[in-house]
Specification:
The protein is of the alpha+beta class. It has one domain. It contains four helices and six strands. It is globular, with a radius of gyration of 20 Å. Bound molecules: zinc ion (ZN) (2 copies).
Length: about 180
């Protein structure tokens, strides 16, 4: 009988823990939804979350393309507690493996973000309303990243795009 109650108690505790966890996790997300967007931590523009951007997890500003460190494991999880600005430091193509000739397949274009506080790196989908001039600006500036960032990218197996990828980038963004 005692064993039964112990089991029940444990079950209840697990339930409470999960409930509180879900509650904390969604707080930041709910706040954004309620406001219809968020204020960019870098350029201070108000960023609307809408259907036009083509992704449900808007995580960067469509003007300056800076992001905020709110996601921990995957885009949209809002599990990070850092909240520092994440600087766009380069572009990359999503790794889609290799074709049968061993040539790497080109996936979708992504922005590489670097947290200015804890040096985390994340790659993020481009949204339909992202500023294209800024995207090319990231490409131009990505040649001057620090040794520290280069090493970190290497560790995470992220290949930055360079000038020779310009045509492919333009095709992905503009279709020509
Ligand atoms: Zn901004
Ligand atoms: Zn961070």
């Amino acid at each position: 009988m005692a064993g039964f109650f112990v089991g029940k108690e444990v079950k209840m505790k697990n339930y409470d823990w999960k409930y509180n966890f879900e509650k904390t996790k969604s707080k930041e997300h709910n706040k954004e939804q309620k406001a219809g967007g968020f204020t960019c931590s870098h350029c201070k523009q108000f960023i609307f979350i809408n259907d036009f951007m083509g992704t449900s997890h808007r995580n960067h500003c469509n003007y300056c393309l800076w992001s905020k460190h709110v996601d921990l494991y995957k885009p949209g999880d809002r599990k990070a507690t850092c909240y520092a600005g994440m600087k766009p430091i380069g572009l990359t193509f999503k790794n889609e493996g290799h074709d049968k000739y061993g040539k790497s397949r080109q996936g979708e274009l992504k922005i590489v973000h670097w947290c200015v506080s804890d040096m985390s790196i994340s790659t993020n989908r481009i949204a339909a309303d992202d500023d294209i001039t800024e995207i090319f600006d990231i490409l131009n500036k990505s040649t001057s990243i620090t040794e520290q960032i280069i090493n970190k990218l290497h560790e995470e197996d992220i290949q930055l795009l360079n000038n020779s990828d310009r045509t492919n980038i333009r095709i992905q963004l503009l279709g020509k």
